[in-house]
């Protein structure tokens, strides 16, 4: 391992340490009484935590040697060696109490609930007034993401917007797949209706012994499902068109306000320049007198 590389950042060191750590914990679980596996595992965990960020080669070499020696003692104790069991028991009795207790893990912090956006309010707040902007007004760009209109204010694209677009595209693809499946089923249903009409014309009874009257069509349910799916597809297209029109109006208004604010900044800048020039002239006249 290079001298300039910290041990806990070395891949070889980490693999070796993790392998020894897992081997010790596995052996601790299999130790016979009077040894207590929970105490042995606590000692192993606390020892590894204590040496987690140690950079001294001498200390690490000693720690690894002790770990492999403990592994040999545990193997012998599991095999039934009474002397090794008593040796481990005496070692545990001499260890400090804090080394034999596992520190309970801190509970994961509960993430703060993000405020939910009210549907239909995001676009109604645009364009924002100048006093609420953190900097100069940025004119948004109207972008078509697979025929879904969005307003891009900054780059990179926010993760929430990516999730929104993905969910919209998944729903659209499901509708298209359902439409294609129903169109295929429609052909089968038409064939069934034709066959029923042939049977009815021949006066052939159905499986229940009744002559079919031709009142219920196979295509009825398919027509209804296909109509519902087509309405959903058309509704999405209408929604996208209406949203695009609103966004175009927002972009135009943002561009208009940006031009007004640019002229206002220019006016204030000119006034400040004239003020500084007047002060300089006044000072020069005072110096002459």
Q: Tell me, what's the shape?
A: flat
- How would you spell out the order of helices and strands? HHHHEEHH
| Residues in helices, as a percent range | 55-70%
Most strands sheet: 2 strands, antiparallel
Region (Disordered): 265-289
Organism: Aureobasidium melanogenum
Domain Complex 1 LYR protein: 17-72
Protein name: Complex 1 LYR protein domain-containing protein
Please characterize this protein's 3D structure:
- This protein is mainly alpha-helical.
- It has two domains: 7-100, no CATH class; 123-286.
- It is built from six helices and two strands; from the N terminus they run H-H-H-H-E-E-H-H.
- It has helices spanning 11-29, 37-50, 57-78, 82-94, 159-202, 219-288; strands at residues 141-145, 148-152.
- The protein has a two-stranded antiparallel ribbon with strand order 1-2.
- Strand 1 and strand 2 (148-152) form a beta hairpin.
- Helix 1 packs parallel to helix 3 (57-78) and helix 3 (57-78) crosses helix 4.
- The radius of gyration is 39 Å and the shape is flat.
- The N and C termini lie far apart (80 Å).
What are the key terms here?
flat; mainly alpha
Gist?
Residues 265-289 are annotated as: Disordered. This protein is mostly helical and 289 residues long.
Show the helix and strand layout:
Blueprint: H1 11-29, H2 37-50, H3 57-78, H4 82-94, E1 141-145, E2 148-152, H5 159-202, H6 219-288
Antiparallel strand pairs: 1-2
Helix pairs in contact: 1-2, 1-3, 3-4, 5-6
């Amino acid at each position: 391992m290079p001298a300039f590389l910290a041990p806990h950042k070395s891949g070889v060191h980490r693999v070796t340490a993790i392998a020894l750590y897992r081997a010790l914990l596995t052996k601790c679980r299999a130790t016979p009484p009077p040894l207590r596996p929970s105490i042995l595992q606590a000692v192993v965990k606390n020892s590894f935590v204590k040496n987690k960020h140690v950079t001294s080669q001498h200390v690490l070499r000693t720690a690894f040697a002790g770990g492999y020696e403990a592994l040999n003692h545990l193997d012998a104790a599991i095999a039934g060696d009474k002397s090794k069991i008593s040796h481990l028991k005496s070692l545990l009795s001499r260890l400090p109490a804090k080394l034999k207790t596992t520190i309970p893990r801190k509970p994961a912090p509960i993430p703060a609930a993000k405020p939910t956006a009210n549907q239909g309010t995001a676009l109604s707040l645009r364009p924002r007034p100048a006093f609420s902007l953190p900097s100069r007004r940025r004119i948004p760009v109207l972008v078509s993401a697979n025929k879904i209109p969005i307003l891009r204010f900054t780059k990179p694209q926010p993760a929430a917007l990516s999730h929104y677009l993905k969910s919209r595209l998944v729903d659209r693809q499901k509708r298209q797949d359902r439409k294609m499946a129903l169109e295929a089923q429609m052909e089968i249903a038409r064939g069934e209706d034709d066959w029923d009409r042939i049977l009815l014309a021949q006066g052939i009874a159905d499986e229940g012994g009744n002559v079919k009257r031709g009142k219920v069509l196979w295509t009825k349910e398919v027509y209804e499902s296909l109509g519902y799916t087509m309405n959903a597809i058309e509704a999405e297209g209408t929604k996208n068109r209406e949203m695009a029109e609103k966004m175009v109006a927002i972009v135009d208004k943002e561009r208009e306000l940006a031009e007004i604010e640019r002229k206002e900044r220019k006016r204030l800048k000119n006034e400040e320049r004239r003020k500084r020039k007047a002060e300089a002239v006044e000072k020069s006249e005072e110096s002459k007198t």
